Each structure stands twice: as structure tokens, then as C-alpha cells.
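Researcher: Structure for this, please.
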Amino acid sequence: MKNRSKALTGAVLAVGLIVAGATSAQAFSGSRSVTLPGTNINLQANAWSQSVLSGGRADFATSSKATVNGSAKSVATIKNTATIEARGVNASISVPGGVSVGGSASAKSLSWTNNNAWISDLGGTASYSGLTVSVHANSAAFAVHQGVKNYVDVWSW
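Model: Predicted structure, C-alpha cell format:
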């Protein structure tokens, strides 16, 4: 009976490790933050993109957040710019509302600005073609509060 219990426990642990590994491997993500000079306001850029590509479509999400001690803090202006990039041979990407970055077919960007808010976020589904190996998102956060400005960006890799 002890051996059967040990075998069952081992099997459950193995399945748990496989599921946990599969779950964490489903997305690329990144987060970086800076402080607005002379304030205690934290400006954070977050980027997420799916890591398993299938069917010529890839989901992404980006955000810019202003916080003080982890709580939302409204600022005069907060902007998020998402840049979605396809990597590979002859890779190209299409994002609804996106504009080419430097004339490149493999990178598109879009942005959103909010006033008197603590967050600005973007998300959607990009279409890719060519021999695309990966799709990554860059999140660029920009904020202004009482004339003080700062910027931070991060890639989802």
C-alpha cells in the first residue's frame, strides 16, 4: 500500500510540474519602472505577448501605470505606446490601427493617451506572416505630473 501511495504521489507531482511548466511557458512578459523625479510616483511599463504561435495570429497586451506605494495615482497625462514586432525570415506583422516603425514590415506601433488618469493600456491580436519565429511586444510608458515628466519601456522577452 505504501508503494502505491508513493507512486500516486509521484505521478501527481509530475503532472503538476508539467502543467506548471506549460502554463508559465505560454507567454513572454516584462515589467520595468522608474520614479517621476522629485515625487514618490512610480511609472511602470508592462508588456505581454503569447509565446506559442499558431494560425498566423498572436495576442498582446501593454500598459502604463502610475502608482504611489502600490496604489493608483492619477497624473495629468499618461501614455502607452505598444510596438509589436515579428521576428524571423521575411517576417511581417499587421496590427489594427498600427503604423509601421521606421518603414519596417516587421514592426507596428500604436498608442493611447489618457488625461487625469493612472493607467493607459492597449491590447489586441496581431496577424503575422512569413517564416515568423516569435512575436514580441514593447511597452513604452510616458507620464506628466505637475510639469514633471518621465519615460520607461520594456520588451516582453
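Researcher: Any notable elements?
Model: Confidence is low (pLDDT under 50) at residues 4-25. The helical segments are 2-24.
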